[in-house]
Predict the 3D structure of the following.
Amino acid sequence: VLPSGGPLLAKVQAHPVTQPDLPVILRVIEGLSMDGSPPFPQMTAFRKECFQSFPVSHVQTMTLSQILQLYMAAYQSPVIWKDLWRQLVGVISVQIIRDIDQFVAKNEFAHEAVMALIINS
């Protein structure tokens, strides 16, 4: 994690990624796992708010790791998040897109919880 206000952070912010590399991001996201960790509160809210239009049988078979991966995909660039979602779960609809967009707009990314999962795995 870059220190707040550091020179490297300023350089990174000055040059945002305009064409994210979908295969690389997908590979990183697919490597994420909960490994027995309990879900963090934002992930629980994400599941409640963003999976209502999914087929019930699909939601019942999803693992916490899959929900984490979809949570991560939802916070990626608007240019690629829908493509990531399709690759990860194979289900997307207008209602799912609305639900995700609304969730992301009103909820900050849980960077501390996600970093703890990455560091401790």
